[in-house]
Amino acid sequence: MFIRSASGSPLRAAFVARVALAFALGTAFIGAASVQAQHSAGHAAAAPAVKLGSLTIEEPWSRATAPGASVGGGFLVLDNAGADDRLVAASSPVSARVELHTMSMQDNVMRMREVEHIEVPAGKRVELRPGGLHLMFIELKAPLEEGRSFPVTLRFERAGEVEVQMSVRSMGAGAMHH
């Protein structure tokens, strides 16, 4: 059985199901233990903001993943004090590849698709967050563990490349805000 992606290429139903399950677990898993952990321990230590020319990258984080999960999400805030730019690629040693993605509701169905780039307009703040624009770590090499961090290289069309440290938060992190 195959399902077609937004780009029209066939994807194995099993892979699509694993991706959907990973995001559903991350978005819906807000059990009492998770909420308690967020309130008592807070988030993993926040990485300091990183500057790249007129861009400031703040709050890079990811959710912990279950053992055996093949995908994970990455989130951050891009603040642009200069000219228009675009996030065009990302990479990390924790996964085989990193894709730029968006999620949206269409006809009461949550749809996720890869995008070629993420616009970072002049003078604007762009949030990559659960349920919207995000990084997708594909073919994870190991689970993302709460309290740890890992490097991600971001490539911008104009500003160039910069490495940030993604803090890994709990599985339910960020879900309460959206």
Question: What does this protein look like?
Answer:
15% of the residues lie in helices and 48% in strands. By secondary structure, it is mostly beta strands. The chain has one domain: PCu(A)C copper chaperone (Immunoglobulin-like). Strands 3, 4, 5, 6, 7, 8, 9, 10, 11, 12 and 13 form an eleven-stranded mixed sheet that branches. A hairpin with a 7-residue loop joins strand 4 and strand 5 (71-80). Mean pLDDT is 79; it is low at 1-5, 11-17 and 20-43.
Could you say which overall geometry the principal axes of the C-alpha atoms support? Answer: globular
| Domain unit count | 1
* Main pleated sheet: 11 strands, mixed
Oligomer: single chain
Name the helicity range: 10-25%
What is the terminal separation in angstroms?
33 Å
Beta-strand residue fraction: over 45%
Topology, number of strands: 13
CATH architecture: Sandwich
Low-confidence sequence ranges: 1-5, 11-17, 20-43
The CATH superfamily appears as: PCu(A)C copper chaperone
CATH topology: Immunoglobulin-like
Name of the CATH class: Mainly Beta
The helix-and-strand class reads mainly beta
SSE succession = EEHHEEEEEEEEEEE
* Alpha carbon gyration radius: 16 Å
Q: Provide a count of the helices.
A: 2
Average pLDDT confidence is: 79
